[in-house]
Amino acid sequence: MTLVKKILGATAGILFSVSVFAESIAVIDVQKIVAQLPQTQAMMQTLNEEFAGPREELTKLQSDIKFSIEKFQRESMTMSQEEQEALKVKIEGMQKEFQSRAQPLDQQLKQRQTEERNKILALVKEAVDAVAAEEKIDIVLQAQSIVFVTPEKDISDKVTARISKLN
Q1: What is the pLDDT of residue 4?
Q2: Which InterPro entries does the protein's record reference (predicted)?
């Protein structure tokens, strides 16, 4: 028996045993829900606005670095040794500055994205709990963990509608 057959057999056994004890089972697609929420779009807009200034500064610095490198490549033959060294030092300084500013900005952005995503996931959890209670659903599973489910058992749209009303 192949490993896949064993896994499918075990999954089917677990699902069968769960369905014997549970009156009602439903599934949700968390990724689909989060993608459709107006709160997600608002979060993305907020983060874009919050980090617009520092991103623009980094973009300008990156453009300055590129310009200086191109200038060095174009004009190095006509530059004196001192001018070449000065431009090299300037480019290296700008590259170090870019790295020292880009990494913390990236970390701050990731941290803020995580914070905001956790807020949205908390809303999803609350909505799932509420929909499950209203419809007397005993177990809610993530759709990604299920091989097959009938569309009637998917409550993702109901959860999305409930959260969207909060906006």
Answers
A1: 46
A2: Chaperone_Skp
Helix (H) or strand (E) holding 28: strand 25-28
Higher-scoring residue by pLDDT: 88, 14: 88
CATH 3.90.960.10 fits 23-166, yes or no: no
- pLDDT tens for each residue of 83-101: 999 999 999 999 999 999 9
Q: Beta strand 25-28 with 139-142: parallel, antiparallel or unpaired?
A: parallel
Is pLDDT at 116 greater than 50 in this prediction? yes
pTM over 0.85: no
What is the DSSP annotation of the chain? --HHHHHHHHHHHHHHHHHHH-S-EEEE-HHHHHHH-HHHHHHHHHHHHHTHHHHHHHHHHHHHHHHHHHHHHHHTTTS-HHHHHHHHHHHHHHHHHHHHHHHHHHHHHHHHHHHHHHHHHHHHHHHHHHHHHHTT-SEEEEGGG-S---GGGB-HHHHHHHHHHH-
Q: Say how far residue 85 (Cα) sits from the centre of its chain.
A: 43
Domain boundaries, the chain: 23-166
DSSP H/E element including 17 = helix 3-21
> What's the full length of the chain, in residues?
167
Place of tokens 């999305």: 160
